[in-house]
Amino acid sequence: MVNARKGLLTLVALAGAAPAFAQPARSYPPEITKYLQLQSRVNAAGIRNVTLMVDGQMGTFRERVLKQGLNMRIEFADGPNAGSFTVESGGRRFLVNPARREARTMAPMGASFAPASLMSRLQGREGRWEKSTGGDIAGAKTVRWDVFDSRNRIMQRFWVEPNRGLVLKRQIFDENGRVVGGFEFEVVKFDVEMASNEFSVPTDFRIIRPLEELKAACQRASLTPVILDPALGYNLDAVRILSAQQGSGIVMSVYADETTQLSLYIMKQPLNTERLRRLTGQRLKFYSWQQGGQYLTIIGALPQEELARLARSART
User: Fold this and answer.
1) Which one-letter DSSP state was computed for residue 315?
2) Whether residue 8 has pLDDT greater than 60
3) Residues 262, 255 contacting (CB under 8 angstroms)
4) pTM of the model
């Protein structure tokens, strides 16, 4: 995110999901529809601790979250983005850096209660949802939902305040059942009044568009830009040129959802597979392929088949 948390990761929305997933699939429990319908009416403010994996290491970061219906603001209290914040309003979303007087465009998250990346993984699958009593989170009674894939592997566990549809705690799991990301609110207040300018970008700030950065970087490295399908829920956060040398150009682009970072490498030459296995270790997976005369590798804490699905979405 786009100071480097090594991988340049940016955390995203409180309940995040792209508009394409604003309505649940038919196989979802009816309570999910209720949660979605509540999103446009919920006003809340709180402090949460977000845990996620960056370059194979787990880290925890503190955030202040404001939600006014579909308007969102998340302030980063520590980490590389300390002093920055994201805002979303009117279908537009930005990562704002006041010190640099700039705002970076991001994909809007929309009204859903869960990341679009998770929703897209469940679409068309014979997944399973289990509901149970969740206990108290940040002083609020919750319902717990466990979400399993078709192979009965836990994908997500989340605790939601059922009367408002607000997710107060979330855990994301890898294919081996290990937690690879999540968040938990320690304080939350409902029905909080907020000024409308909390969700706006100052008019004199410079606007940065990551897709334009990707195109410029690939041009310098004599590569063709490749992006992941935004509908799958991963936001293009940042771009870095690793090599602009003729015939061996490498551009790394970083994608993120609420709790997961992905690195996509666009290259003239393939990465060494054995070296990749050593670097990624047990928690991170990678998937490599060729496309349009280029070599691509995607790395992240996701199951191998999920990385392959994302690779199939890649387009120029």
Assistant:
1) B
2) no
3) yes
4) 0.72
Residue 303 DSSP SS3: coil
Tell me, what CATH number does 119's domain have?
2.50.20.10
Residue 114: what pLDDT? 52
Strand ranges inside the chain, DSSP E: 43-54, 57-68, 71-76, 85-89, 92-97, 102-106, 128-137, 140-148, 154-161, 166-173, 179-190, 206-208, 235-243, 250-256, 261-267, 285-291, 294-300
Spatial distance between the Cα atoms of 188 and 167, rounded to a whole number of angstroms = 11
Token couple for 239? 């771009």
246 backbone dihedrals φ, ψ, rounded to 5° = -55, 125
Average pLDDT, the chain: 82
Sheet of strand 285-291, all strands in order from the earlier edge strand to the far edge:
235-243, 250-256, 261-267, 294-300, 285-291
Residue 55 — very low, low, confident or very high, per pLDDT cuts 50/70/90? low
Burial class (CB in 10 A: 0-12, 13-18, 19+), 30: exposed
Q: Tell me how many domains the chain contains.
A: 2
Q: Which of 177, 199, 221 is the last residue of a domain?
A: 199
User: At which of 147, 179, 199 does a domain end?
Assistant: 199
The pLDDT assigned to 84 comes to 94
* Domain range for 243: 209-313
37 and 172 inside one domain: yes
Q: What are the tens digits of pLDDT across the range 110-151?
A: 644 455 555 555 554 557 889 999 999 999 999 999 988 878
